[in-house]
Amino acid sequence: MRKRRSIFDILRERMEELEAIAEEMLDQFVERPSWDTSSQSLEPLCDVSVRSDSVIVTADLPRVDPKSIRVSGISDDLIEITAEMKVKINFEDFGVTHRRGEFSRFSCRVPLPVPVDISRARARFRRGILEVILPRKLGYEIKIE
Amino acid sequence: MSDRVRIIERMEIPKGLRAIFGLPDVGLVGTIAASHIISKMKLTEVAYVKSELLPPIIMLEEGLPKAPIRIFGGEKLIVLTSEIAIPSSSIYSIIEALTGWIWKKKVQEVFTLGGLPVPNRYEIEKPKIFGAASNKNLLERLKEKNIQLIKRGFLVGPQALILSFCSEHGIPAIALLAECFHNYPDPEASSIVIQALNRMIDMDIDISELIEKGEEVRLAMRDMMRRTQAELSRMRKSHEYDIPGYYIK
């Protein structure tokens, strides 16, 4: 007779499956270039953090002209960040002589993990870091008896 | 030292030197600091790490192959650094081998440079420096130099292993950690740890160039930060934010 599995075994297995998926996503994230010569763009380092009332997206944008930074909502769960660099750079600036191409901008699309109200979003740029604060969509409030 | 990690010496390394670790970690604070020290002090490669636990990567410099984890040296000190994110699965063996080698070389003392991630880093004008050490006398030395101690909390990754292995071998070791971004290269934090190191060992490494070239450094370190970030997630680096459990004094 097959031994009945405990809820803990099932949970552990489920956790392991989720960890394997997360691991795969981490690998996929880095296994492609962070630059694109056809659009002359570099992908900035980005971070998404979900708080109780907002989603905060940050991006590291060194050497950009602050006035050129654009943040736009592509859909309910995707924003696009673009910024032009003050001066173009090329591979040789990094000491790399076997690749060709130059870069004039940063560009990335950031998926948002929870629903937000993009129309109420605000952004600021400090110390070369862009911070976009997107208020989360309000749900129903449950009254406490 | 396990056979799976070997330290190959390119020249004879005198005993009794100081060793400075600058390995990839949050904000690449240690790596940027190490690279600045190597360049300012004109240190040359004296040894490298050879290990089957590392990915099959070489670094080409002027067309010639170099190992990604290397030791640079001068008359008084050696600097241990890496040009790749060290895989989380091999960090234990790599640091165990490096500290074992340091012990054999009778290194006088070890400094490990790094960062302490703070979520609101972009609101901080000047990052604060903190210290931890492998023995009580060294904690006193940190206090004398006005470096605040990390009295209680978790350390994860290279710093954690360097301090614990050095403590086991009886090698005096100090960690100098500046407040920094978790996943953005932070040359400003690197300049703060270099200034603290200057105070600790009466050196005078100029940091003005590091500050001036801050944006350039951030741009150049982007890919390494991305890969380091992935390894740090595997090491459960976020554990450092955890508040340790209840304890009875």
Main CATH class of chain B: Alpha Beta
* DSSP strand tally of chain B: 11
Q: What structural category characterises the helix and strand content of chain A?
A: alpha+beta
Spatial strand sequence of the major β-sheet of chain A? 1-2-7-6-5
| Quaternary structure of the protein | heterodimer
- What's the helix-strand series of chain B? EEHEEEEEHEEHEHEHHHH
Number of strand segments of chain A: 9
- Mean pLDDT score of chain A: 88
CATH fold name of chain A: Immunoglobulin-like
What sort of overall outline of chain B do the alpha carbons produce when their principal axes are compared?
Answer: globular
Number of contiguous helices of chain A: 1
Q: Beta-sheet strand percentage of chain B?
A: 15-25%
| Radius of gyration from the alpha-carbon trace of chain A, in angstroms | 21 Å
Helical percentage of chain B = 25-40%
Main beta-sheet annotation of chain A: 5 strands, mixed
Strand arrangement within the widest β-sheet of chain B reads: 1-3-6-7-2-8-11-9-10
Biggest interface, chains and residues, is: A-B, 22 and 23 residues
SSE ordering of chain A: HEEEEEEEEE
CATH architecture of chain A: Sandwich
A few lines on this structure:
The complex is a heterodimer of chains A (145) and B (249). With 145 residues, chain A is α+β, with helices and mostly antiparallel strands.
Throw out a few tags for this protein.
heterodimer, A: 145 residues, alpha+beta, Immunoglobulin-like, five-stranded mixed sheet, four-stranded antiparallel sheet, 1 helix, 17% helix, flat, B: 249 residues, alpha/beta, Rossmann fold, nine-stranded mixed sheet, two-stranded antiparallel ribbon, 8 helices, 11 strands, 35% helix, 24% strand, globular
